[in-house]
UniProtKB/TrEMBL annotation:
This is Arl8b. InterPro entries: P-loop_NTPase, Small_GTP-bd, Small_GTPase_ARF/SAR. It comes from Acrasis kona. The keyword Nucleotide-binding applies. It comes from the Eukaryota.
Length: 180
Protein backbone atom coordinates (compact mmCIF):
# COMPACT_ATOMS: atom_id res chain seq x y z
CA UNK A 1 0.00 0.00 0.00
CA UNK A 2 2.93 2.35 0.60
CA UNK A 3 3.71 2.50 -3.10
CA UNK A 4 0.10 3.21 -4.01
CA UNK A 5 -0.13 6.03 -1.49
CA UNK A 6 3.00 7.72 -2.74
CA UNK A 7 1.81 7.37 -6.35
CA UNK A 8 -1.55 8.86 -5.46
CA UNK A 9 0.19 11.74 -3.73
CA UNK A 10 2.28 12.22 -6.84
CA UNK A 11 -0.79 12.19 -9.07
CA UNK A 12 -2.81 14.52 -6.89
CA UNK A 13 -0.08 17.05 -6.33
CA UNK A 14 1.08 17.65 -9.87
CA UNK A 15 -0.92 17.93 -13.06
CA UNK A 16 -4.57 18.40 -13.66
CA UNK A 17 -6.55 15.37 -14.69
CA UNK A 18 -10.22 14.84 -15.30
CA UNK A 19 -11.35 11.28 -15.53
CA UNK A 20 -14.72 9.73 -15.93
CA UNK A 21 -15.44 6.30 -14.61
CA UNK A 22 -18.29 4.59 -16.41
CA UNK A 23 -19.76 1.12 -16.54
CA UNK A 24 -22.86 -0.85 -15.70
CA UNK A 25 -24.39 -0.61 -12.27
CA UNK A 26 -22.73 -2.84 -9.69
CA UNK A 27 -19.50 -3.19 -11.68
CA UNK A 28 -17.51 -1.59 -8.85
CA UNK A 29 -17.11 2.05 -9.90
CA UNK A 30 -17.87 3.53 -6.46
CA UNK A 31 -15.53 1.07 -4.78
CA UNK A 32 -12.75 2.08 -7.17
CA UNK A 33 -13.53 5.76 -6.73
CA UNK A 34 -13.29 5.39 -2.97
CA UNK A 35 -9.92 3.68 -3.27
CA UNK A 36 -8.63 6.42 -5.57
CA UNK A 37 -10.18 9.28 -3.61
CA UNK A 38 -8.96 7.99 -0.26
CA UNK A 39 -11.94 9.07 1.79
CA UNK A 40 -12.73 12.40 0.14
CA UNK A 41 -16.43 13.25 0.36
CA UNK A 42 -18.42 12.64 -2.81
CA UNK A 43 -20.91 15.01 -4.41
CA UNK A 44 -23.94 13.51 -6.09
CA UNK A 45 -25.58 15.47 -8.86
CA UNK A 46 -29.03 13.97 -9.35
CA UNK A 47 -30.42 16.87 -11.38
CA UNK A 48 -29.02 15.81 -14.74
CA UNK A 49 -31.10 12.66 -14.61
CA UNK A 50 -28.25 10.23 -14.54
CA UNK A 51 -26.34 8.96 -11.61
CA UNK A 52 -23.33 11.25 -11.54
CA UNK A 53 -20.99 11.38 -8.61
CA UNK A 54 -18.07 13.70 -8.45
CA UNK A 55 -14.92 13.95 -6.36
CA UNK A 56 -12.44 16.72 -6.64
CA UNK A 57 -9.16 16.12 -4.93
CA UNK A 58 -6.50 18.72 -5.40
CA UNK A 59 -5.96 18.82 -9.17
CA UNK A 60 -7.84 15.66 -9.99
CA UNK A 61 -11.52 15.58 -10.80
CA UNK A 62 -13.17 12.18 -10.90
CA UNK A 63 -16.63 11.74 -12.27
CA UNK A 64 -18.55 8.52 -12.09
CA UNK A 65 -21.58 7.44 -14.09
CA UNK A 66 -23.78 4.41 -14.04
CA UNK A 67 -24.76 3.43 -17.52
CA UNK A 68 -27.67 1.07 -17.06
CA UNK A 69 -30.76 2.07 -19.05
CA UNK A 70 -29.96 5.72 -19.42
CA UNK A 71 -29.58 6.06 -23.14
CA UNK A 72 -31.84 9.10 -23.30
CA UNK A 73 -29.33 10.98 -21.17
CA UNK A 74 -26.39 10.22 -23.40
CA UNK A 75 -26.24 13.72 -24.86
CA UNK A 76 -26.01 15.04 -21.32
CA UNK A 77 -23.31 12.51 -20.57
CA UNK A 78 -21.34 13.65 -23.61
CA UNK A 79 -21.24 17.21 -22.27
CA UNK A 80 -19.40 15.93 -19.21
CA UNK A 81 -17.29 13.42 -21.10
CA UNK A 82 -16.08 16.15 -23.40
CA UNK A 83 -14.31 17.81 -20.50
CA UNK A 84 -12.64 14.59 -19.32
CA UNK A 85 -9.11 13.73 -20.26
CA UNK A 86 -9.52 9.99 -19.88
CA UNK A 87 -12.27 7.40 -19.69
CA UNK A 88 -12.23 4.42 -17.35
CA UNK A 89 -14.72 1.70 -18.24
CA UNK A 90 -15.34 -0.76 -15.41
CA UNK A 91 -16.57 -4.27 -16.20
CA UNK A 92 -17.63 -6.87 -13.66
CA UNK A 93 -15.45 -9.76 -14.85
CA UNK A 94 -17.37 -12.20 -12.67
CA UNK A 95 -20.74 -11.43 -14.25
CA UNK A 96 -20.73 -13.28 -17.55
CA UNK A 97 -24.43 -12.59 -18.11
CA UNK A 98 -24.00 -8.84 -18.21
CA UNK A 99 -20.83 -8.75 -20.25
CA UNK A 100 -22.66 -8.45 -23.59
CA UNK A 101 -24.61 -5.46 -22.25
CA UNK A 102 -21.32 -3.92 -21.11
CA UNK A 103 -19.89 -4.48 -24.59
CA UNK A 104 -22.86 -2.77 -26.23
CA UNK A 105 -22.65 0.19 -23.86
CA UNK A 106 -18.91 0.55 -24.35
CA UNK A 107 -19.12 0.60 -28.13
CA UNK A 108 -22.10 2.96 -28.18
CA UNK A 109 -20.18 5.24 -25.91
CA UNK A 110 -17.14 5.30 -28.15
CA UNK A 111 -19.34 6.21 -31.11
CA UNK A 112 -19.91 9.57 -29.46
CA UNK A 113 -17.86 12.32 -31.00
CA UNK A 114 -17.09 13.73 -27.55
CA UNK A 115 -14.99 10.65 -26.92
CA UNK A 116 -12.76 11.00 -29.91
CA UNK A 117 -9.08 10.72 -28.93
CA UNK A 118 -9.83 10.06 -25.26
CA UNK A 119 -7.56 7.37 -23.87
CA UNK A 120 -9.61 4.42 -22.62
CA UNK A 121 -8.77 2.19 -19.69
CA UNK A 122 -10.89 -0.96 -19.53
CA UNK A 123 -10.89 -2.33 -16.01
CA UNK A 124 -11.79 -5.97 -15.53
CA UNK A 125 -12.95 -5.75 -11.96
CA UNK A 126 -13.65 -8.45 -9.34
CA UNK A 127 -10.85 -10.75 -10.44
CA UNK A 128 -10.89 -12.10 -6.89
CA UNK A 129 -14.14 -13.90 -7.76
CA UNK A 130 -13.66 -17.25 -9.55
CA UNK A 131 -14.06 -18.11 -12.34
CA UNK A 132 -12.96 -14.79 -13.74
CA UNK A 133 -12.57 -13.58 -17.30
CA UNK A 134 -9.01 -13.63 -18.62
CA UNK A 135 -7.60 -10.58 -20.34
CA UNK A 136 -7.57 -12.43 -23.67
CA UNK A 137 -11.18 -13.52 -23.31
CA UNK A 138 -12.18 -9.99 -22.30
CA UNK A 139 -10.64 -8.57 -25.47
CA UNK A 140 -12.76 -11.08 -27.42
CA UNK A 141 -16.09 -10.75 -25.62
CA UNK A 142 -15.89 -6.97 -25.44
CA UNK A 143 -14.72 -6.80 -29.10
CA UNK A 144 -11.90 -4.50 -28.04
CA UNK A 145 -9.98 -5.28 -31.23
CA UNK A 146 -12.68 -3.34 -33.08
CA UNK A 147 -11.76 -0.16 -31.24
CA UNK A 148 -9.60 2.03 -33.41
CA UNK A 149 -6.57 2.55 -31.22
CA UNK A 150 -5.64 5.67 -33.18
CA UNK A 151 -8.97 7.15 -32.19
CA UNK A 152 -9.07 5.75 -28.68
CA UNK A 153 -5.81 4.30 -27.38
CA UNK A 154 -7.00 1.51 -25.08
CA UNK A 155 -5.52 -0.69 -22.40
CA UNK A 156 -6.99 -3.48 -20.27
CA UNK A 157 -6.07 -3.95 -16.61
CA UNK A 158 -7.59 -6.74 -14.50
CA UNK A 159 -8.24 -5.47 -10.97
CA UNK A 160 -10.01 -6.07 -7.73
CA UNK A 161 -11.16 -2.69 -6.48
CA UNK A 162 -12.31 -4.32 -3.26
CA UNK A 163 -8.92 -5.84 -2.50
CA UNK A 164 -6.95 -3.04 -4.18
CA UNK A 165 -5.33 -5.58 -6.52
CA UNK A 166 -3.50 -3.90 -9.44
CA UNK A 167 -4.76 -0.47 -8.42
CA UNK A 168 -1.13 0.68 -8.54
CA UNK A 169 -1.17 -0.07 -12.30
CA UNK A 170 -4.32 2.02 -12.66
CA UNK A 171 -2.72 4.97 -10.88
CA UNK A 172 0.43 4.52 -12.97
CA UNK A 173 -1.68 4.75 -16.15
CA UNK A 174 -3.43 7.88 -14.80
CA UNK A 175 -0.09 9.47 -14.01
CA UNK A 176 1.13 8.75 -17.54
CA UNK A 177 -2.02 10.28 -19.01
CA UNK A 178 -1.71 13.36 -16.82
CA UNK A 179 1.37 14.18 -18.85
CA UNK A 180 4.26 13.16 -16.62
P1 LIG B 1 -21.08 0.58 -8.84
O1 LIG B 1 -20.64 1.87 -8.21
O2 LIG B 1 -20.45 0.33 -10.14
O3 LIG B 1 -22.57 0.43 -8.91
P2 LIG B 1 -20.10 -0.60 -6.39
O4 LIG B 1 -20.56 -0.63 -7.91
O5 LIG B 1 -18.76 0.00 -6.22
O6 LIG B 1 -21.21 -0.07 -5.56
O7 LIG B 1 -19.93 -2.17 -6.11
C1 LIG B 1 -21.00 -3.08 -6.27
C2 LIG B 1 -20.74 -4.29 -5.41
O8 LIG B 1 -19.59 -4.97 -5.90
C3 LIG B 1 -20.45 -3.98 -3.94
O9 LIG B 1 -20.93 -5.05 -3.16
C4 LIG B 1 -18.93 -3.97 -3.90
O10 LIG B 1 -18.41 -4.26 -2.62
C5 LIG B 1 -18.64 -5.12 -4.85
N1 LIG B 1 -17.29 -5.02 -5.42
C6 LIG B 1 -16.69 -3.94 -5.95
N2 LIG B 1 -15.44 -4.25 -6.36
C7 LIG B 1 -15.26 -5.56 -6.08
C8 LIG B 1 -14.16 -6.48 -6.26
O11 LIG B 1 -13.09 -6.15 -6.74
N3 LIG B 1 -14.38 -7.76 -5.84
C9 LIG B 1 -15.55 -8.16 -5.28
N4 LIG B 1 -15.65 -9.43 -4.89
N5 LIG B 1 -16.58 -7.34 -5.08
C10 LIG B 1 -16.44 -6.04 -5.48
P3 LIG B 1 -22.17 -4.89 -2.18
O12 LIG B 1 -22.30 -6.26 -1.57
O13 LIG B 1 -21.77 -3.83 -1.21
O14 LIG B 1 -23.32 -4.51 -3.04
Amino acid sequence: MGALLSMLRDLFSGRKLEMCIVGLENSGKTTLLNVLAQGEPMTTLPTVGLNLRKVKKDNVTMKVWDMGGQERFRSEWAVYAATSDVVLFVVDASDTEKISVAKKELHQLLDDKALEHKPLLVLLNKIDVQPTLSKTDAVKVLSLDYINSQRNPWVVIPISALHKTNVTEVVQWLIEKSGR
